[in-house]
């Protein structure tokens, strides 16, 4: 059964001296010892001792690994105090959520990335201690989660009550995990919650897979429609090209027909043929519509043939008619 908030919402802080790393600043820190353990004062008062072993540490490490951001190492737990003192939080370093259990020693933070300023301060012994605020079960004493890690020069318990209050304030603001917000459920209930979350995660994965499959199917359809559209465009272009060619051929045939008729009825002279061949169908049609056929001199009004009198063919007679030249004069000039 879940414990009450009064029994379970408990916080504590322990401090260890930073390990010596020779000339180099250490990139690991001892956060908590092997349990059961107590502080040098009367803590804890709610339970016999704090409990931490390999299996408990594994759960603490797993919760840290679930965080989306690295764990901050600040100065004097300012991240918990900023709501009350209004001062900004300055990072001394970051733990990439790489916590490690060491048998016989306890819980360590490893691969710490110190800021340049913090590295210099540690090297110069301006800061000598690492302080860990953690959340624990008030009945069993079991360590549940790391709340805050900080560089400090006050290794005792000064300000612990204030830190606990600030940690609880952070809890009420929803800045800790859903596990903490419950006020501390027992591990059986926690396992149920984990199972429910795992089931929900698997369901979401299934939905994502289904949506991905649907997306791929839609992409395939889009590709097929795009290909079909391209083929239709090609067919339409071919049809339009054939229509254009057919129209051009029809225009050429009509042009040739008009040209032949105009040369025959005298609306065009042979001398005009090269010019007429260069005209568009519309231009030639407009010209011929405005030009009247010329009566050939090969026929008299009564229809009798006079071609024998001049020796001119129809084209020559049409030219004489249009130019106002007498056939006999044309014959003379042609002979000369």
TrEMBL record:
Residues 194-242 form a coiled coil. InterPro entries: Phage_Mu_Gp1. Gene3D superfamilies: arf6 gtpase in complex with a specific effector, jip4. Keywords: Coiled coil. The keyword Coiled coil applies. This is Mu-like prophage I protein. It comes from Ferriphaselus amnicola.
């Amino acid at each position: 059964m879940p414990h009450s908030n009064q029994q379970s919402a408990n916080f504590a802080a322990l401090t260890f001296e930073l390990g010596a790393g020779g000339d180099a600043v250490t990139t690991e820190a001892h956060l908590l010892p092997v349990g059961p353990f107590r502080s040098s004062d009367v803590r804890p008062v709610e339970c016999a001792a704090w409990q931490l072993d390999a299996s408990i540490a594994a759960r603490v490490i797993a919760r840290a690994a679930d965080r989306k951001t690295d764990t901050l190492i600040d100065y004097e737990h300012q991240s918990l105090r900023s709501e009350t003192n209004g001062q900004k939080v300055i990072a001394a370093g970051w733990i990439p959520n790489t916590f490690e259990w060491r048998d016989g020693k306890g819980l360590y933070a490893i691969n710490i990335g110190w800021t340049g300023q913090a590295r210099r301060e540690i090297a110069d012994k301006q800061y000598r201690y690492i302080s860990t605020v953690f959340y624990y079960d008030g009945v069993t004493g079991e360590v549940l989660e790391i709340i805050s890690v900080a560089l400090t020069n006050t290794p005792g318990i000064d300000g612990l009550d204030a830190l606990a209050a600030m940690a609880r304030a952070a809890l009420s603001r929803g800045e800790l995990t859903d596990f903490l917000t419950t006020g501390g459920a027992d591990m059986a209930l926690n396992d149920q919650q984990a199972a429910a979350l795992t089931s929900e995660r698997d369901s979401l994965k299934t939905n994502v897979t289904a949506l991905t499959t649907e997306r791929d199917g839609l992409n395939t359809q889009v590709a097929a429609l795009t290909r079909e559209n391209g083929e239709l465009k090609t067919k339409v272009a071919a049809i339009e090209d054939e229509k254009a060619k057919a129209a051009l051929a029809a225009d050429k045939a009509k042009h040739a027909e008009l040209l032949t008729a105009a040369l025959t009825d005298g609306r065009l002279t042979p001398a005009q043929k090269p010019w007429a061949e260069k005209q568009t169908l519309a231009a030639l049609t407009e010209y011929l519509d405005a030009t009247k056929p010329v009566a050939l001199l090969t026929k008299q009004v009564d229809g009798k043939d006079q071609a024998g009198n001049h020796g001119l063919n129809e084209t020559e007679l049409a030219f004489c008619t249009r130019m106002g030249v007498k056939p006999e004069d044309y014959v003379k000039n042609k002979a000369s």
